[in-house]
Design brief:
By secondary structure, the protein is α/β, with parallel strands linked by helices. The chain is 28% helix and 28% strand. Bound molecules: cytidine-5'-monophosphate. Keywords: Decarboxylase, Flavoprotein, FMN, Ligase, Lyase, Magnesium, Metal-binding, Multifunctional enzyme.
Length: 226
């Protein structure tokens, strides 16, 4: 088995892509599979943590063993579920792909064809849940964010990652190199783990479980030191 270095800890992980409803049958969504978040939840449970997984839409994934799964649809639902789940948690990882925008209004019935073109879709900005969780962070709680950075080269992706870490205020930021078939809808991942203390770790190309292990290594070290 794995080291039980998260025994006695409570952690919360978000996963998957939110769906922003337009009417009772339609939504705006994204291509997140939820695999990285599920791997994070599974590995944390294997290392002894009590885990809550807040899951938006995902591919057809089995619930990780010994993990409490809370299902949500929209960004606003994910937000409520996260604020409730993080109370008393030692660590929080926002791996969900949260929609940046949602339709301004939710039709009560299926929107019908009228024969003429529809009105442009009016959108409004969703709250940044990660920023909110950082704002509500309890003493000693570790908050981890994810960033998918395209960047033409490594320097670019890292530069954008550093800026995002500062802007969001989280303790750790996983920077995924995306593009060239990386990260989305594939089983493997690679990138960097940036910390608010300035440290920077390469996350070598490997399984999402391997990347999850490296993230929990960093979280466990910080929980030990606090
Ligand atoms: O700004 P960007 O979307 O690149 O940030 C990604 C990180 O912020 C992820 O950890 C994601 O879960 C989180 N996020 C959020 N709420 C949003 C948008 C992103 O918590 N509305």
């Amino acid at each position: 088995g794995l080291p039980q270095d998260l025994a006695g800890r409570r952690v919360v992980v978000s996963a998957g892509g939110t769906r922003e409803p337009l009417d009772p049958v339609r939504f705006l969504g994204n291509r997140s599979s939820g695999r990285q978040g599920y791997a994070l939840a599974a590995v944390a449970a294997q290392r002894g943590a009590a885990v809550t997984l807040v899951a938006a839409h995902t591919a057809d994934l089995a619930d990780p063993a010994a993990v409490e799964v809370v299902r949500v649809g929209s960004a606003l639902e994910l937000r409520d579920a996260m604020h409730a789940a993080v109370k008393g948690a030692d660590a929080v990882v926002m791996a969900a792909a949260v929609a940046d925008f949602r339709p301004v209004s939710l039709a009560g019935h299926k929107i019908k064809k009228t024969g003429s073109d529809p009105e442009p879709l009016a959108l409004t900005t969703n709250p940044d849940i990660l920023v909110e969780l950082v704002g509500a962070r309890e003493p000693g709680q570790i908050v981890v964010g994810f960033a998918a950075e395209t960047g033409d080269d490594t320097g670019d992706a890292l530069h954008h990652g550093r800026q995002k870490l500062a802007r969001k205020g989280c303790d750790l930021l996983v920077v995924n190199a995306v593009g060239d078939g990386m990260a989305f809808e594939v089983p493997e991942n690679a990138g960097w783990l940036l910390a608010a203390d300035g440290s920077e770790t390469v996350l070598p190309h490997g399984s999402k479980a391997l990347l999850a292990s490296r993230v929990w290594d960093a979280v466990a070290a910080r929980l030990r030191d606090r």
